[in-house]
What we know:
Among the domains are: about 45-175, TolB, C-terminal domain (Neuraminidase), CATH 2.120.10.30; about 185-375, no CATH class; about 560-660, Immunoglobulin-like (Sandwich), CATH 2.60.40; about 660-740; about 760-845, no CATH class. Helix content is about 5%, strand content about 40%. The protein contains four helices and 57 strands. Strand 29 and strand 30 form a beta hairpin. It is globular.
Amino acid sequence: MATAAVGVVLGAITAGGVARAQPSVAADFSVAPVIRGLTQPTSVAFAPDGRVFVAEQGGTVRVYRTLTDAHPTTVIDIEDEVMSFWDRGLLGLAVDPDFPSKPYVYLLYTVDAPVGQQPPVWHDDCADPQGDGPTDHPCNVRARLSRFEIGPDDRQVGGETILLEQGTCQQFPSHSAGDLVFGPDRALYVSLGEGAGFTQADSGGLGAPETQCDDPPGEGGALRAQDLLTPGDPIGYGGSVLRVDPDTGEALPDNPLVGAVQAGTQPQGAARVIAMGFRNPYRLVLRPGTDELWVAEVGWDTYEEIDRIPSPVGGATVPNYGWPCYEGPHEQPDYAPLDFCKKLYAGVYGAPTTLVPPYYSYQHREPQGSGCEVGSASAVSGVAFYEGDRYPSDYRGALFFSDYSLGCVWVMRRGTDGLPDPSAVSTVASGLPGPVDLVAGPDGDIYYVDLWAGAVRRLVYTSPNHAPIARVKTDQDRGPAPLAVRFDATGSTDAETPADQLQYAWDLDGDGALDDATGWIIRHTFAEPGVYPVTVRVTDPSGAFDDASVTIAAGLAPPIVTLDQPLASDTWSVGEPIYFAAHAEDEDGKALPDTSLSWQIRLLHCPGGACHAHDVFAASGTASGQIDAPDHAYPSHLELEVTATDAAGLTDSETIEIYPRTTTVSVRSDPPGVSLTLDGDTKPAPFDATVIVGSSNDVEAPASVTLGGEGYVFAAWSDGGARAHAAKVPEAGAALTARFSPDADHDGVPDASDNCPAVANPSQSDHDEAGPGDACDPACRPVDPAGRDASDGGAAAYQCGGSGSGCALTAGTPDPARSMRWAVACGLLLAAATALIGRRRRSVRR
């Protein structure tokens, strides 16, 4: 996500203990459940034969025969290969467009091993011997694109075929693998993040040496996104979109850079690249009827982007979307001082790239349409085009897009040119818990993957009708068999229809068919021991519906799990080890094996009281372990959940939340009143902020500022850091003061270093090319009215003669009037200036 410091986040979260906004949809839409019971789903794909594939972050893929199939099959399980940690994991999924005649499913995921090693190595953890946390001591990994053959019985045929993994080194636990989509010509498009640090600017060299990718100096970190323009090392694909042959993983022959590679002007492998300059191109979509590729690009501090690749074939250059030198439509201030970015701004770099601005961008804390509550974090997380006939005609050709952190979905309607119109954005839904993928379904409707709730949902157009909201409760959900249970759905509601006029259909035997009972209150006896998923569907007179489910355990007692460590009273600071342990037993007190236990550890970031989650750690088959407390913006805390699963599939979970120790960072300016930025929040100094002990917090001061009409330029931070830097705050807190120097002429040069503080330096000359207005550019050196150095064409030119030696005329004839203006502007005595000019004239003539 981007948050103020973090990219898109794929943390799972349970409903309990988390405050979040209530879902709300536009008047004409409702949200209908389609698939439930998933574990951290990240992507959904619809096969041409009606099957539905869902990827889960941990490394499994489930297949459903239809959207109503209640008994999915786990068709792929590569959990040992996948590193599911923070934003890493199985993120990209695509089904061959010729399925099932070409019975292939393609996956894009993070490999649980450093470059050159075989998984598993990290085991979904990132152990940190230095205790700094994974954002300071990261784990080196890589991405992988693979193909799997699926049989007609929903079973995997043969093994994994690896198509691509070279050039995909990632250092930090975000901006990882991205998305997969097929083009109309069966070309496979692949997006990859740059794997850079996100708590501070990263141009390479961060972290311990053993964690770094093999980048040349000054070409690592976020600059991997510009690898085509930084030769001298093998091509890397971080921050790029690729176009490959799905059978081989190689570049397709009509890719733009094929000719450059063949001519030897680009390195081997560059031909796969069809766009570059991305931070985290998390989601892709093809505009129907075209070969245009649209990209959901997750930003950093300020902007989220939607980028358009007009044509991925032909030509001899590829579009460059500018990261890290640009974020949104503007230069990125933390990276702007880099020599590479200065050259990019100056147009030094040409072929094989063309710099392209975003098609659409939105600023963090800036509402997009009405009804979406803004916060300090944003992360664009899905893009999909609508081409169906179930929504009104003005939605046809519209672009739907989502934001994970804000929990919103918007629509950008089609303009007169047929393209989505950035001025026509409106909110479709808000308060959604974690949308991480948007897809147009086979019926044309827009579907989204709900990471937090483990579900796939559908946006249904219902105007003027709204779908009901189903609710079910029971008098008991477990006990000895035979077990008599009373089910009550009277809590269900509908905006237009009284509850007693709604229709209720029940599935009591778990076969997926809603044919076992009707009515809003029913009773049923489960005669045989077993676990029974029970679902009620509530339907209104217009056919809109919603489902609610509950699980009944008859004749079976679930296990009992006890979380031993940590305690609710425990606290933590960044980098400290957090030990966890639990045990489980059956109803008779017999211990269950460690293999029955699984863990989810999440960091909940709760700005404004609305929480979103970062998945920190997941493990199964272990009773204990430890993690290093992560670094993140406050308010944040950790949630640990342990689940015990017995042989019958019954579960019991216990959750605990532990909070960090906090301290205060005081941000000041000298003089007071300068607007300074702390972790993406800008306000006039002085101000205080609560932060987590040991956290690294981004602070930034402006290069120049005007207060009360007086000019100032940045001089230094009190801790010696750069104008924009990360400040680590100890337990005792910290006081950070940004000091500014007076700049009377507002030219960016402090008065103490400015030889002519009364005249702005753009009006002064720069003879020594060391910056105008310094000690070697005195007032005796005139410039012409246009501000040009008057050193040619009959105009006077003077040169600094060194300390105490004054100026020497080097060319031309002095212009007394111009020299007088100079002297007056600089506060010099006119007579002294005239005399000086005269002496220099005579000395030259001799």
